[in-house]
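Box 3.1 A note on notation
Throughout this textbook, protein chains are presented in two layers. The first layer is the amino acid sequence; the second is a token string describing backbone geometry. Keep the layers aligned when reading.
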Amino acid sequence: MILIVAPWSAFWDRNGIAWMMPIVRGYLSNHFIRGAVTGVGVITACAGLVELAGVFGLRRTAPAPDPVHHDQAP
């Protein structure tokens, strides 16, 4: 969630490391970079939700095949 919210917050603008290096400051203030970081956060959050669905058994599975009894004669 931090990657989704942080690029658009005041925390992002007050980054001390970015203010020490003007080149980094230029990149971090770019809205395309902020959007890219937010996009990575959204993808990561979606992947996490898919993993949680698998843990809780919410993932759809193929139906089990009908068991075949080999010990019975036709």
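The CA atoms of residues 51 and 59 lie 9 Å apart. The chain is about 60% helix and 0% strand.
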